[in-house]
């Protein structure tokens, strides 16, 4: 009985994190049950699951997702638009409408004019299937029209731009308010939205904030290019950054409010 309950929890977790993982686990249980009769090897279910999952993720899901109007963001094929962490791709969290992929590719290309070699680093986007199916823990990444992009950071020791950002999972390295800037995150936490800075607590043990400097110039360029793209309807960031980066004139750049996680570690981009 406990074993069945554990399987149900595991299937639910896989489904929440990857959309297809739960179904692949069920298929793997069935297939490994058949195979075990002939060849009783330890770890067979895991072997079948990992093989099936990777096969599905890289060869079966992309063409099926295209049928439902979503495409994966480039994994290796565009050196200017890359995943901040390959796990976003492995977990099937990088699907978007074709128009959003085109907009990101165009912006990544435009970035080269001022910052040759610049890469636009994407993080969570949407799952491959079903409008309305949310990508946890994000509220709105459910229709193929949303994607989160990393801000830019410089490593102090080398003065080099960080590949991706210093967080091990992409989120939680905040370009927080400076003295004199209004702290919207703190104001939200005081209203009871205690979880909005949780990513920062999770990332904190894995990097030293004093080793990195927020690259305001490069981040501002990215935000301006995105805001100027006609296919982009809305960008969400913390208001203190909108002011600091001189973006007050861009109506598309807004505050996400208190319900969603704070947005001074990434920009949330929406397709029109
Ligand atoms: Zn988002």
Describe the structure.
The chain is α+β, with helices and mostly antiparallel strands and 272 residues long. It folds into 2 domains: 2-67, no CATH class; 71-271, Muramoyl-pentapeptide Carboxypeptidase, domain 2 (2-Layer Sandwich). 42% of the residues lie in helices and 13% in strands. The chain has 9 helices and 11 strands. It has helices at 2-18, 21-38, 44-67, 86-90, 98-114, 184-190, 198-203, 216-228, 239-244; strands spanning 71-72, 81-83, 95-96, 120-122, 146-150, 153-155, 160-161, 212-214, 232-236, 253-254, 266-271. The strands form 4 sheets. A 4-stranded mixed beta sheet has the order 5-11-9-10, with helices on one face. Helix 9 links the parallel strand 9 and strand 10 (253-254). Helix 1 (2-18) packs across helix 2. It is globular, with a radius of gyration of 20 Å. The protein binds zinc ion. Zinc ion is lined by residues 138, 141, 146, 148, 268.
